[in-house]
C-alpha cells in the first residue's frame, strides 16, 4: 500500500461525514429510492442499462435480512412502474448466506418470484472467498426453479476455471458476471500479479463463451475491454451473448466509447441509507481505491 493511500485510510475517521458524502456521490446514486430512479433514467437516456444495488453490510441476525429483502422488492416494483431498463444485484451475505443457507435461499426465492412476475432478473454478487462455495450452490439451486438469475465470478481466484466448467455442466444457459475480484485474498487461493489476473480474465471469458454462457464483462481495464472484443470477434459472437458492465462514476468516457460502438453496457448503481458504512468499509478493506477517491475530490463528479 502506498504511503499516500495509508494516510487517507488512517485519517478517514476524522473526515467530516458530509465531505465523505461529497466524494462518494460520484460512486453512489444517493440515499433514497428517488435518487436511484433519477440516476437510472439518466443512464437509460445515454443508452445504458443499470443494475441496482441496495447498499448494506453482511448481517449478524437472520431477522436483519427482512429490511434489504423489502427494499429490493420495492426496487423491483419501482423498476416496473417507472419503466426503467434495470435489474438488481444482491449480496448473499446481506440475505443471510453465512447464517442459515435455507433461509437465505428462501429470501432469494422471494426476490426471484417478484422479478419473474415483472420479467426482471436478479444478479447474485460474489463476495470474499469464504462465501464462494455457498454462493455457487445458491445459484445452482435457484436455477433449478428460475431462469432469471445469474451469479458473478472472480478472475483472481485460482479455482474459477474449474467453477466455470462445473457450473456449465450443472446449469443450462449459464449466466455470470466476470470481474477481477475486489477482496484481499491469500496468495494460496488467488493470483496476485496484475498481468496474470488479466490473462486469466481473458482465458475464463473464452472458456465461458465456448461453453455457451452469457457473460457480463465487468471491468474498467481498457486492456481487458480490448481482450474481450478480441474474443468476441474471434468466436463471431452475437451481441445477445454478452454485455459490458461498469461501476457508477468509473471511466465514463470508456463507457461511452463502448456504447457508441453498439455494445450493450450496464452500469452498477449502488444506493441506500448505508452509503457511509459502505464507503468507509470498502476503503479500509481495499485502500488501493483511496487514490481514486482522493482524485474524485478534486475533479467534477462526472458519472
Ligand atoms: C459492474 C461491476 C460489478 C462488480 N461486482 C463485483 C463482485 O460481485 N464481486 C467482486 O469481488 N468484485 C466486483 N467488482 C469489482 C471488480 O472485481 C474489480 O475490483 C474492479 O472492477 C476493478 O477492476 P478493473 O477490472 O476495473 O481493473 P483495474 O485495473 O482495477 O481498473 C482499471 C482502471 O479503472 C479505474 N478504476 C477501477 N476501479 C475504480 C474505482 N473504484 N474508482 C475509480 N476508478 C477506478 C482506474 O482508472 C483503473 O486504472 C465489480 C466491478 C464491476 C465493474
Report on the structure:
With 303 residues, the protein is an alpha/beta fold. The chain has two domains: 1-28 and 287-303, no CATH class; 32-271, TIM Barrel. The protein has twelve helices and eight strands. An eight-stranded parallel barrel has the order 1-2-3-4-5-6-7-8, surrounded by six helices. Strand 7, helix 10 and strand 8 (265-271) form a beta-alpha-beta unit. It is globular and about 50 Å long. The model has no long low-confidence stretch (mean pLDDT 91). It binds flavin-adenine dinucleotide. Flavin-adenine dinucleotide is lined by residues 125-126, 152, 154, 177, 179-183, 218-221, 224, 245-247, 250-251, 268, 289, 292.
Percent of residues in beta strands?
5-15%
Helix-strand sequence:
HHHEHEHEHEHEHEHEHEHH
Query: What is the CATH architecture descriptor of the largest domain?
Result: Alpha-Beta Barrel
CATH topology of the largest domain: TIM Barrel
Number of spatially distinct domains: 2
Through-space gap between termini:
27 Å
Bound molecules: flavin-adenine dinucleotide
Number of helices: 12
Q: Please report the total strand number as a whole number.
A: 8
Largest sheet: 8 strands, parallel, barrel
Biggest sheet strand order reads 1-2-3-4-5-6-7-8
Mean pLDDT: 91
Query: Unreliable segments (pLDDT under 50, ≥5 consecutive)?
Result: none
Radius of gyration: 18 Å
Secondary structure class reads alpha/beta
CATH top level of the largest domain is Alpha Beta
Amino acid at each position: 500500500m502506498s504511503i499516500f493511500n495509508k494516510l487517507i485510510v488512517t485519517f478517514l475517521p476524522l473526515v467530516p461525514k458530509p465531505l465523505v458524502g461529497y466524494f462518494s456521490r460520484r460512486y453512489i446514486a444517493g440515499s433514497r429510492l428517488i435518487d436511484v430512479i433519477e440516476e437510472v433514467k439518466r443512464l437509460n437516456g445515454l443508452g445504458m442499462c443499470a443494475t441496482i444495488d441496495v447498499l448494506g453490510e453482511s448481517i449478524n441476525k437472520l431477522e436483519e435480512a427482512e429490511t434489504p429483502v423489502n427494499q429490493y422488492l420495492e426496487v423491483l416494483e419501482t423498476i416496473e412502474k417507472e419503466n426503467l431498463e434495470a435489474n438488481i444485484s444482491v449480496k448473499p451475505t446481506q440475505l443471510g448466506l453465512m447464517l442459515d443457507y435455507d433461509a437465505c435461499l428462501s429470501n432469494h426465492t422471494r426476490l426471484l418470484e417478484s422479478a419473474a412476475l415483472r420479467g426482471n432478473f436478479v444478479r447474485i454478487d460474489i463476495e470474499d472467498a469464504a462465501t464462494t462455495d455457498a454462493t455457487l450452490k445458491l445459484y445452482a439451486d435457484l436455477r433449478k426453479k428460475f431462469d432469471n438469475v445469474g451469479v458473478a465470478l472472480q478472475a483472481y481466484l485460482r479455482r474459477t476455471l474449474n467453477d466455470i466448467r462445473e457450473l456449465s455442466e450443472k446449469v443450462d444457459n449459464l449466466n455470470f458476471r466476470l470481474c477481477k475480484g475486489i477482496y484481499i485474498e491469500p496468495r494460496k487461493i488467488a493470483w496476485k500479479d496484475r498481468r496474470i489476473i488479466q490473462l486469466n480474465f481473458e482465458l475464463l471469458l473464452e472458456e465461458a463463451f465456448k461453453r455457451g454462457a452469457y457473460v457480463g464483462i465487468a471491468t474498467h481495464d481498457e486492456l481487458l475491454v480490448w481482450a474481450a472484443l478480441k474474443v468476441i470477434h474471434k468466436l463471431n459472437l452475437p451481441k445477445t451473448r454478452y454485455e459490458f458492465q461498469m461501476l457508477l462514476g468509473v471511466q465514463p468516457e470508456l463507457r461511452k466509447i463502448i456504447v457508441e460502438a453498439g455494445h450493450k453496457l450496464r452500469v452498477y448503481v449502488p444506493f441506500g441509507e448505508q452509503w457511509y458504512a459502505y464507503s468507509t468499509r470498502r476503503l479500509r478493506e481495499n485502500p488501493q481505491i483511496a487514490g481514486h477517491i482522493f482524485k474524485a475530490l478534486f475533479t467534477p463528479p462526472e458519472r
